[in-house]
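Q: I'm building a small set of examples for a reading group on sequence design. Run inverse folding on the following structure and report the sequence directly after it, with nothing in between.
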């Protein structure tokens, strides 16, 4: 679920084409000791990286204290590193807060360095997230979508709560086999609290640069509020994950098995094959929830924002659905193949507003060659890549039709050989996993979505008044979404 993320690659060895010919990439001026660290804001740091990219070019050199970093703003450069040299770019840099305080002992794939433990965990995720396994959860997603439509019809002003409940309930049921029928259900609220804090602390510059200046790790707790924050997150995370795991184990003792990922992991043959203990099983379940609930919620909220701001897109999508399904039934998974425009809309959401514009960094595990530039650390910015005017016509506008002309949404004449590939999509199985158009289909089949009232003036908003600016409309944190806005959900059958 790291599509649209910002990654970073570091290594003490210099990466060069010919050492005698290498030069540093251009970048902002540095100051002694800090480098550019003092210029990186604590919130939405990727906007500062974007500013530097516009000024200095596709490859930008930045110094974070004693550590060098290179920001990549072009797809061709990212492809050169991640597609052609992925074997040495799959690791993660040191993350004291993530891997030494919150999660420990190589239990969280997102933060793990490349190695044997990483490869073993990746094998486990590949085994449980097969197309067949994920596809078997479609009836569950459909049932939760129907409940969400009912809740929206009863209290449309609480749409945010209903959408949050949906995204979390699908994940809870899929992973642990438990329901979350209401937004204020205990498991729903606990998961969102833990997730919000975890993604917030992982955001760039949200905490002091303890990995840059290791002396900060030695400060006592009373001088380290960031460490106390991390300890609280660890405690709440473990309480939630292990309680949910214990509930599954207790249920299985009563002879009740369900079609969920935890039941698969707890099967004796699976545990023996992968040598899994409860610590790893609990965190695999937690990582699956983290990877699904927030990205699903963010994508749906951004989709709703786009439908409000671009009503002609909503009308066109509804016309396609009505022509196929009419009013007698809601669209289902099998209809997706005959509704290509809906898939174009979802692809455009993920390109237009990637949900993790400032993500988790990568690190080199050995020396490599890149361009004529000397580079110690690279960071690719998907938000900039997906808005590259050389690749996309009018990139800041929401235009699903670009994916009708080209499956990558590119300008005419560009294709995958130009370094572009689909870095956003519908998850495992091409539409059957967490990022699924099924929920968008249901919402726009049942409702017209319009701008609501301005919370300050009480007046109805016009379409041109809807704010979609990343600087003001996006939430802070590692994962980004639109802040709540007033929306009207009007039944299409009235």
């Amino acid at each position: 679920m790291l599509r649209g993320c910002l990654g970073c690659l570091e290594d003490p060895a210099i990466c060069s084409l010919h050492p005698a010919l290498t030069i540093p990439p251009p970048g902002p001026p540095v100051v002694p000791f800090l480098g550019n660290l003092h210029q990186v804001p604590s919130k939405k740091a990727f906007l500062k990286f974007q500013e530097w990219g516009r000024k200095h070019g596709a490859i930008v050199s930045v110094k974070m204290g004693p550590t060098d970093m290179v920001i990549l703003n072009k797809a061709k450069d990212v492809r050169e590193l991640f597609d052609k040299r992925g074997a040495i770019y799959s690791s993660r840099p040191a993350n004291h807060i993530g891997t030494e305080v919150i999660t420990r002992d190589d239990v969280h794939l997102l933060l793990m360095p490349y190695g044997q433990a990483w490869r073993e965990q990746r094998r486990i995720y590949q085994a449980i997230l097969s197309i067949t396994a994920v596809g078997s959860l479609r009836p569950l997603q459909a049932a939760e979508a129907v409940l969400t439509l009912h809740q929206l019809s009863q209290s449309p002003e609480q749409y945010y709560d209903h959408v949050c409940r949906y995204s979390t309930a699908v994940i809870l049921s899929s992973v642990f086999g438990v329901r979350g029928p209401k937004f204020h259900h205990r498991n729903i609220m606990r998961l969102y609290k833990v997730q919000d804090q975890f993604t917030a602390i992982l955001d760039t510059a949200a905490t002091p640069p303890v990995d840059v200046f290791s002396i900060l790790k030695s400060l006592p707790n009373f001088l380290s509020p960031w460490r106390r924050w991390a300890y609280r997150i660890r405690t709440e995370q473990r309480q939630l994950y292990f309680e949910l795991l214990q509930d599954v184990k207790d249920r299985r003792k009563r002879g009740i098995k369900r079609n969920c990922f935890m039941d698969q992991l707890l099967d004796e043959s699976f545990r023996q094959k992968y040598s899994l203990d409860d610590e790893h099983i609990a965190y695999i379940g937690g990582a699956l929830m983290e990877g699904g609930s927030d990205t699903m919620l963010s994508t749906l909220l951004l989709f709703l924002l786009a439908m409000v701001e671009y009503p002609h897109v909503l009308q066109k999508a509804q016309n396609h659905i009505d022509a196929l399904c009419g009013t007698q039934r809601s669209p289902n998974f099998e209809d997706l193949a005959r509704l290509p425009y809906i898939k174009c809309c979802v692809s455009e959401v993920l390109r237009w507003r990637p949900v993790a514009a400032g993500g988790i960094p990568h690190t080199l595990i050995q020396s490599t060659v890149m361009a004529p530039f000397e580079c110690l650390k690279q960071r690719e910015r998907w938000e900039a890549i997906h808005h590259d005017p050389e690749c996309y016509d009018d990139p800041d506008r929401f235009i699903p039709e670009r994916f009708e002309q080209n499956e990558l949404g590119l300008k005419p004449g560009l294709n995958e050989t130009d370094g572009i590939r689909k870095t956003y999509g519908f998850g495992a199985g091409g539409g059957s996993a967490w990022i699924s158009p099924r929920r968008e289909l249901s919402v726009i089949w049942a409702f017209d979505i319009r701008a609501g009232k301005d919370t300050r003036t009480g007046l109805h908003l016009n379409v041109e008044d809807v704010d979609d600016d990343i600087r003001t409309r996006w939430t802070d944190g590692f994962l980004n979404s639109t802040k709540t806005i007033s929306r009207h959900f009007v039944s299409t059958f009235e």
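The two ends are 38 Å apart (CA to CA).
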